[in-house]
Structures are given as structure tokens and as C-alpha cells.
Amino acid sequence: MRYWPLPARIGFLALIAAIAVFALFPFYYAIISSFRSSTALFDVSLWAAPDLSNYVAVFREQPFARNILNSVVVATSVVAISLVLGVTASFALARVHFRGRGLLLLTILSVSMFPQVAVLSGMFELVRFLGLYNSLGGLILANLILTLPFTVWVLTTFMRELPKELEEAAYADGASPLDVVFRVFLPLLWPALVTTGLLAFIAAWNEFLFALTFTLSNEMRTVPVAIALLTGGSQYELPWGNIMAASVIVTVPLVVLVLVFQRRIVSGLTAGAVKG
Questions:
Q1: pLDDT score at 232
Q2: What is the pLDDT of residue 238?
Q3: In this predicted model, what pLDDT tens digit does every residue of 163-186 receive, in sequence order?
Q4: How many C-beta neighbours within 10 Å does residue 48 have?
Q5: Residue 32 falls within a domain, yes or no?
Q6: Considering the domain boundaries, does residue 23 fall inside one?
Q7: Which helix (H) or strand (E) holds 31?
Q8: How many CB atoms neighbour CB 55 within 10 A?
Q9: Do 275 and 157 form a contact (C-beta atoms < 8 A)?
Q10: Contacts 24+ apart (CB under 8 A), 198-202
Q11: Domain containing 197 — which CATH number?
Q12: Which of 88-102, 105-119, 120-134, 227-241 has the lowest mean pLDDT?
């Protein structure tokens, strides 16, 4: 921007400011609305005095702390299983030559192209057959359909870019394939693991359809379903203040995770883009 004319720089900064306002204003307004009472929610105002009554009501009127814990357990388990299976599967698909490898990789990718509703009935029968209905295990199994294909595909791309000489040197020193994966390649895959792990965590944290279908009791529900089922005193009255407060509570951890790992996310998304 040093050599840009002044009007161009002003226009560029104005465009950046407009994009920032457009992206951040909904979250800011949700925070402001979470501090308001039900009667003041529809007043047009960009500021509200801090009032934590809605936050207290969210935890008092339903087991919201348990719902948050359920989401943490499900999302963390999905990320851990996806990364372990993704690393081992990507090593086989990227470094081991066998017939049908390309077709298998395309099949894995095609699984992620189906909408959730298309596999909902089949997944419901599988979860019920395994005795995992209304349990966190059923949600973990169902969410793996959303996260595992993407994880395998991305990690396979990164695995292909690793130098062949490292693998050959490890084998020459007597290393096994598992040693190569977890002792040689794994330290080099951290940017990719952070990127895919965070995206898998967000997908599992925000997943709604499977969580609504495969859970029955409030104690087993995750936070998206718990927020959707918040009701007021009558059929036509919704506690918007509580809903906004709950939405802020479940969004803040994702924002914190992105801010903490933003450097690794950027390096993970750009790794392998430039060779030589």
C-alpha cells in the first residue's frame, strides 16, 4: 500500500472495515441481546447494560452444563479418532502403492458429498442395531461420517508432499511402518493436523441433525439441540434472551480455539502450495 495513491488506500481500508463490520456485527449484536430482558430485545439499540440474568437462567432452567460437557466429549472424541485413523489411512494411500488406490481415495471423498439427510435412516438403523441410541457413542459414530473423509483426504495430500528420503532413511535404520508414521512423519504433519482437527471439532460441535435424531433425553443432548429446544412459558413465546446467551456461550470456545491456533491454521492451509 506504500505506492498506492491516497484515494486507493482510503478505498481499500474502507472496504476492509466494511467486511469486518459485516462479519463481526451479528456476533456483537448477539452479545448485546444476551444482556437484555425479553421486553427490551426488540428495541433498536447498539448498547445494553451488562445483565447476566439470561446466562444464569440458561444453566438454572435446564442441564446446559451437561449439554456443554456432552459436546466437548463428542467433539474431542471425534477429533481424536479422525486424526488417528486419518494419519494411518493417509500413509497407506499416499506412500503405499497398491491397485485401486486412486479409486479408494475418490470413494472416501464421495462419501462426504452425500447430504446428512440421505444417510440419516441408514445411520439410525446402524446406531440402533449397535445399542448406541441416546448415547454419546452413537453421536461419535455418526459424526465420524462427516469428519473422517475430509480428514483422510487432506492428510493424504500433505503426506504426499513429505520427502521420500526421510522414509527411506528410517527404513534403512530398521524402523517399521508405524515408526515412520508416528516418529518421522507425525512431527512434520502438525500444521495439517491442527487445521483438520480444528475443522473436525467445529463440524462435530455444531452438528445438529444427527444429535437431534439420535438423542432422546436432555442429559444426552449436545448444545445445538439444547439451544433449539429452548422454550418459553407458552407455545408462541420463545426466551430470546436465553437463546442469545446460550449461543454466545457455545460460540466463544470456537473463537478462542481459532485465535490460539490461527498461525498453525494458516501454515496448514498454505503448506504444499509452493514447491522448490
A1: 55
A2: 66
A3: 888 888 888 888 888 888 888 888
A4: 16
A5: no
A6: no
A7: helix 6-34
A8: 19
A9: no
A10: 198/257, 198/258, 198/261, 198/265, 199/147, 199/150, 200/78, 200/79, 200/82, 200/83, 200/147, 200/150, 200/151, 201/75, 201/76, 201/78, 201/79, 201/254, 201/257, 202/254
A11: 1.10.3720.10
A12: 227-241
pLDDT digits (tens, 9 = 90+) for 223-233: 999 888 876 54
Nearest in space to 246 (alpha carbons), one of 270, 224, 269? 224
- Going through the chain in order, the beta strands assigned E by DSSP cover none
How many structural domains compose the chain?
1
Residue 176 belongs to some domain of the structure: yes
Instruction: State the residue range of the domain holding 174.
Output: 63-229
Residue 268 backbone dihedrals phi, psi, to 5 degrees: -70, -35
Cα 90 to Cα 76: distance, rounded to the nearest angstrom? 21
pTM of the model: 0.82
Residue 95 maps to a domain:
yes
- pLDDT, tens digit, 9 for 90 and up, residues 43-86: 667 776 777 888 888 888 888 899 999 999 999 999 999 999 99
| Closest C-alpha to 35, from 47, 19, 23, 17 | 47
What's the CA gap between 43 and 56, in Å, rounded? Answer: 22
C-alpha cell of residue 167: 522414509
Rounded to whole angstroms, the Cα distance separating 213 from 121 reads 10
C-beta of residue 57 within 8 angstroms of C-beta of residue 243? no
Given a contact cutoff of 8 angstroms between Cβ atoms, the answer to whether 180 and 169 are in contact is: no
Confidence of residue 268 (pLDDT cuts 50, 70, 90): low
Indicate the range of 2-6, 50-54, 169-173, 208-212 predicted with least confidence.
Answer: 2-6
